[in-house]
């Protein structure tokens, strides 16, 4: 079967509401990511991790080179490309049929990543940090993960939404506006990510987990990223390395409320969780 056909079939599964849960494994080539910073800087290391995630059931490998944890520094476009493009080329060569997403908010990086073999653009800014992103995605015509966040990189983690406001309505208004702009460009392969942990209070993050089904109004797949985040570690007073069990608990709620894609550090555990939830949904 031709490679393009394999990719098309896998992408169809993402947008098929009746298909099973999709697992996205995180592969960061950064020195400062909150859990795995510096672990996969060498090719032998990132290929070993990629092999592990694919073997455990990852449907997508999400490759990033720009850490967005609180307090992380801003790197140049050149440095970001230096970190992600070789990894994408290497993973594509060694895993020719796995879906690859690139975690970037920069249009030029997205463009080069797609040329190197990326199938999906994962943009934490929802097209806000780079005005060329939407037209680039439309031209590339690859699935685009539209995440809610604050309007600038400098305010990414500021708690902008008042705790008295309806967090879901604020995000629905955001997504309506951004999706409308993408649709005007003739683009519709959109995945929605509410951006849990980005510019929201802990209470708002849990509200999003509890009622993520409200975003089903857009008829687009929903991606959730709660893996080992501060909404867990601060509540339980544990370090990220000790937050796996709690992550799995939240995954159950997210899937029960309509999430289609889980973005995770631990693929095996997420896959097992998703399989059980999918079976309950199917048999129930």
Q: CA-to-CA gap between the ends?
A: 35 Å
Strand content: 5-15%
Q: Would you count the extended β strands for me?
A: 8
Gross morphology: globular
Label the structural class. Answer: alpha/beta
Number of domains: 1
Which architecture would the CATH scheme give at its second level? Alpha-Beta Barrel
What's the mean pLDDT score?
Answer: 92
Give the uncertain stretches in residue-range form: none
CATH superfamily: Dihydropteroate synthase-like
Please trace the helix and strand order, writing H or E for each element.
HEHEHEHEHEHEHEHHEH
Q: What is the number of helices? A: 10
CATH topology title:
TIM Barrel
How is this fold's topology laid out?
Elements: H1 3-15, E1 22-28, H2 43-56, E2 60-64, H3 77-94, E3 99-103, H4 107-116, E4 120-123, H5 133-140, E5 144-147, H6 167-184, E6 190-193, H7 202-210, E7 223-224, H8 230-236, H9 244-256, E8 261-264, H10 267-283
Helix pairs in contact: 2-3, 3-4, 4-5, 9-10
Tell me what the structure shows:
It is built from ten helices and eight strands. It is 45% helix and 12% strand. It has one domain (22-283): Dihydropteroate synthase-like (TIM Barrel, Alpha-Beta Barrel). By secondary structure, the protein is α/β, with parallel strands linked by helices.
Short characterization:
The protein has 284 residues and is of the alpha/beta class. 45% of the residues lie in helices and 12% in strands.
